[in-house]
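Quick one: structure for this chain?
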Amino acid sequence: MEISGIFSAIVIGIVIGVLGRLVVPGRQRIGILWTIGVGIVAACVGSAIASAFDVADTEGIDWVEWLFQIGLAAIGVGAVQRFKLRR
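Got it. Here's what it folds into:
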């Protein structure tokens, strides 16, 4: 992976993490670094799932891939929040 790929993953992870936080109702008591980390992981895993279902490369905007990524980010934000509340 080149530097541009890493930079793209971070930028997309930020966007996906923030969108995932917006989907989860209520206030999340996790930091921005946790949000970015969850977003990066959700973006990578969501892309892999979209590729497995053969919907990752479509003409125009890949809405299904974005839905997978945002849904996984919302699940991840909720999981991190629960984990941090238990501590």
